[in-house]
Design brief:
Layout lengths: L3 H13 L2 H8 L3 H15 L4 E3 L4 E3 L1 H23 L9 E7 L7 H11 L3 E7 L13 E4 L8 E15 L1 H7 L14 E2 L10 E4 L2 E4 L4 E2 L3 H9 L5 E4 H9 L4 E2 L6 E11 L6 H26 L6
Helix pairs in contact: 1-2, 1-3, 1-4, 2-3, 5-9, 8-9
């Protein structure tokens, strides 16, 4: 049976990338840390760290073990916190996965939480995929997706709209589509699905249009840059394209047909097993998120031309 002090030493060494620095942070002799690491590797029968005189890197087994070790220590902290008085200041680590939403008001919302809870470590992972909160080491997801696995809870924070756009230079060269049926003849800037495969369709209302696509990326900001350079038609959040549209750098494409509304939600595991730090984060986002995101959306969408 592994002991939590072994896991803590291993995680400290990984974070510090040095046995000596980890020993200093833990207040124990360097030899103790080295001996504990060697004993841990021998006990589990796998090399966790590849060490040289100049560097230290995780092995494949070490990366897998590190994720689970963090989950175990977080569970231990949650167990300890669960018996503390409710008035105690929440502390610990909250791992959040979220899409790149830099212009949405989300950064300010997270910054407010960090200012109000200086004893909580906030780890923010930005990715354009649906993370499985049941299997991956994250506590909370902020996502613009309707996918919800069993055992998870979603609270809607705001609504988002997708709109079709293209640069005037593209439309001057390739023409403007008159209907959704014309889109397959155009150069379309497409996304990637959660497993990294190329997007094949655009959804608009209740319709689903199959497209070939010319460029594929999971970064909407990169799609926006390509669209601004006249590389094709893009299907992007209204708040992301509001300013370029107001400046005339982009033009709406099929405004009546090519549009879709969705929700941005905070997703988390059922609250009965939630650590105090995670509960504080979820409560903050649920309480302040709708107003913060709605104000940001209204400010940018004010520049969005009417369809």
């Amino acid at each position: 049976m592994l002991e939590t002090d072994e896991l803590l030493i291993f995680i400290k060494v990984v974070a510090a990338s040095s046995v000596s620095r980890a020993a200093g942070e833990l207040g124990v002799p360097r030899a103790t840390v080295s001996r504990k690491l060697a004993a841990l590797e021998e006990r589990i029968g796998a090399r966790l760290l590849q060490r040289t005189t100049r560097s230290m890197t995780l092995t494949e087994a070490g990366r897998t073990f590190h994720r689970h070790a963090e989950l175990v220590l977080d569970a231990a902290r949650a167990a300890e916190s669960s018996v503390r008085p409710r008035s105690a200041t929440p502390s610990g680590r909250v791992r959040v996965t979220m899409p790149p939403m830099t212009g949405s008001g989300l950064p300010e919302l997270l910054a407010d939480f960090a200012r109000q809870h200086p004893t909580i470590q906030l780890l923010l992972h930005v990715a354009n995929r649906v993370v499985d909160l049941r299997r991956e080491p994250y506590d909370v997801a902020i996502r613009a997706s309707s996918a919800l696995a069993p055992g998870l809870v979603a609270r809607t924070l705001t609504r988002v709209r997708l709109v079709g756009v293209a640069a005037p230079s593209y439309l001057a060269t390739h023409g403007t589509p008159a209907t959704l049926a014309d889109l397959p003849e155009h150069r379309c800037l497409m996304g990637l699905s959660g497993d990294g495969t190329a997007q094949t369709h655009w959804h608009a209302g209740k319709s689903r249009t199959k497209l070939a696509g010319t460029v594929f990326t999971n970064d909407p900001h990169l799609v926006l840059r390509f669209a601004l350079r006249g590389l094709g038609i893009a299907y992007l959040p209204a708040t992301l394209v509001a300013t370029p549209l107001a400046r005339g750098e982009l033009t709406r494409v099929l405004p009546q047909a090519l549009r879709l509304e969705g929700a941005v939600s905070v997703v988390y595991r059922e609250r009965k097993l939630m650590a105090p730090a995670v509960r504080a984060f979820v409560d903050h986002v649920v309480r302040h998120g709708p107003v913060a995101l709605r104000h940001a959306s209204a400010a940018e969408s004010a520049e969005l031309p009417a369809p």
